[in-house]
From TrEMBL:
<dbReference type="InterPro" id="IPR037158">
    <property type="entry name" value="Thr_synth_N_sf"/>
</dbReference>
<dbReference type="InterPro" id="IPR029144">
    <property type="entry name" value="Thr_synth_N"/>
</dbReference>
<dbReference type="InterPro" id="IPR000634">
    <property type="entry name" value="Ser/Thr_deHydtase_PyrdxlP-BS"/>
</dbReference>
<protein>
    <submittedName>
        <fullName>Threonine synthase-like 1</fullName>
    </submittedName>
</protein>
<dbReference type="GO" id="GO:0005737">
    <property type="term" value="C:cytoplasm"/>
</dbReference>
<dbReference type="Pfam" id="PF14821">
    <property type="entry name" value="Thr_synth_N"/>
</dbReference>
<dbReference type="GO" id="GO:0030170">
    <property type="term" value="F:pyridoxal phosphate binding"/>
</dbReference>
<feature type="domain" description="Threonine synthase N-terminal">
    <location>
        <begin position="12"/>
        <end position="79"/>
    </location>
</feature>
<dbReference type="InterPro" id="IPR036052">
    <property type="entry name" value="TrpB-like_PALP_sf"/>
</dbReference>
<dbReference type="GO" id="GO:0006520">
    <property type="term" value="P:amino acid metabolic process"/>
</dbReference>
<keyword id="KW-0663">Pyridoxal phosphate</keyword>
Length: 399
């Protein structure tokens, strides 16, 4: 494991701009996340999402780095009018103890919007004056369009100083994902197709400014369960996440560190199941592993870029210690995924995308049903329409 640099020894602006530390490691908070008292969570629960985000992020970003006024302006610009649902991340009761957290109501219909409507503003704020930056992005699908959309919305002076170049695999994304990315070809934003290769998945959701906004929705879902009287503060929940680069999982663990009573995080993989193998065995071995194309391409990842943060977190900063896992994991086949879409629709009328279906299968197999389970729905089903229609056994499906 590479040495991890510590947020606190470096300025927030340096951490955001650099992404990776000079030694090749990942930035982590020096003293962890500040734990909020139950009374503070109850106070935040009465707020709309944007105000919740400000209240939570103020505990994660020093006011000398980003002033409270500037932070509030950025957050309200990110979440004020850019999401189709007024709740931003609505929580739906699926059945019995299971809930779906819909993270796909942003402009590109993916959970990546929750980070990438805010991250470009933080990046531009931290950018040194008189400097121009070219941002290179490698994506397995949703990240590309979310990055392009987020950076396009910067104010003109910031937009002129930042260029974005997105690489994506020609045959590894859905048609809608491809159209979203190739639709951005003006000004300083471009997308380029390349042959499918696992190296394209190694340098994505590592930036600290991308991880922080995700902590907010894991906190927000718990206080939504408080508001609808499903829970009283202190009652545990489990969270199930379709897992690729592990950033979403880390943000849930950081929410737990802030005081949200998350008992277990369940990582759900498709047949590219290196994460579930690692959780089960403690070994992470890429030798003789080939990336297999699936109906859930956003988690078609073998080299999980946030895994070092996880190892540092669960081992107490000492990689030689036995890992005390806060995480469980499982994987499902393509047939399992398609069956889940069909059965959930038949019993509840709810339509899941292929990634959410992977989470549903994982949750069904692993969760012990002694507390509520929140399944993160990371993309709108329309982005993967051919696969979803096939799962629903519709006829004459367009190619």
């Amino acid at each position: 494991m590479k040495v991890n640099r510590i947020v606190g020894q470096d300025f927030f602006s340096d951490v955001v701009i650099e992404g990776l530390a000079p030694d090749g490691g990942l930035y982590i908070p020096k003293k962890g996340f500040s734990k909020l008292e139950p009374t503070e969570w109850l106070r935040i629960s009465s707020m709309p999402y944007a105000m919740r985000a400000v209240a939570i992020l103020e505990n994660c970003i020093h006011p000398m780095d980003v002033s409270p006024v500037e932070l509030s302006t950025m957050v309200h610009r990110a979440y004020g009018q850019n999401f189709a649902n007024q709740s931003v991340v609505p929580l739906k009761h699926l059945t019995d103890h299971q809930y779906i957290l819909e993270l796909f109501h942003g402009p590109t219909a993916s959970f990546k919007d929750l980070a990438l409507q805010l991250m470009p503003q933080l990046f531009a704020h931290c950018l040194p004056q008189m400097c121009n930056y070219l941002i290179l992005v490698a994506t397995s699908g949703d990240t590309g369009s979310a990055v392009l959309n987020g950076f396009q919305k910067l104010k003109e002076s910031d937009h002129e100083r930042t260029g974005v170049l997105v690489f994506f695999p020609e045959k590894g994304v859905s048609e809608i994902q491809k159209l979203q990315m190739t639709g951005f070809q003006e000004g300083n934003a471009k997308s380029i197709t390349v042959e499918y290769a696992t190296v394209l998945s190694t340098a994505n959701s590592i930036n600290w400014a991308r991880l922080l906004p995700r902590v907010v929705y894991h906190c927000s879902v718990y206080i939504d369960l408080l508001r609808n009287c499903t829970l009283t503060f202190g009652d545990p929940i489990d969270v199930c996440i379709p897992t690729g680069n592990f950033g979403n999982t880390m943000s849930a663990l950081y929410a737990k560190q802030m005081g949200i009573p998350i008992r277990k995080v369940i990582c759900a993989s498709n047949h590219n199941c290196i994460i579930s193998d690692f959780i089960a065995s403690g070994e992470y071995d890429l030798h003789n592993r080939k990336l297999l194309v699936s109906n859930s391409p956003a988690i078609d990842i073998l080299n999980s870029s946030n895994l070092e943060r996880f190892i540092h977190h669960v081992s107490g900063g000492d990689g030689s210690l036995k890992i005390n896992l806060e995480v469980q994991a499982g994987w499902c086949s393509e047939d399992d995924c398609m069956r889940a879409i069909r059965e959930v629709h038949a019993t509840t009328g709810y339509i899941m995308d292929t990634h959410t279906a992977v989470g549903k299968v994982g949750g069904d197999r692993i969760h012990d049903k002694t507390c509520p389970l929140v399944i993160c729905s990371t993309a709108h089903h329309g982005k993967f329409a051919p696969a979803v229609l096939k799962a629903l056994q519709c006829q004459n499906i367009p190619g």
